[in-house]
Amino acid sequence: MRAEQTKRKLAEEKRKAKRAVEEKARKKYQRIYNACLLDKGKEVEMSVGAMREAVQATCKDIAEDPSWLEEFKYD
Hints:
- By secondary structure, this protein is mostly helical.
- It has one domain.
- It contains 3 helices and no strands.
- The longest helix has 40 residues, at 2-41.
- The radius of gyration is 19 Å and the shape is elongated.
- The relative contact order is 0.13.
């Protein structure tokens, strides 16, 4: 019985750790995405749909896989 409890406890700790890592990654993505939007959108007429979509798509790509420079700049 004790081994079963230990197993469950370890599994729960592993799930918590995984959720913490995922949450940290989600927050980092959001920080980079938002900073990118502010930076790239400041000189763009964001009311024009095509321009807004282009900036959003660019920032989405950057936030998903930022280069070291983009990570430094936006995070």
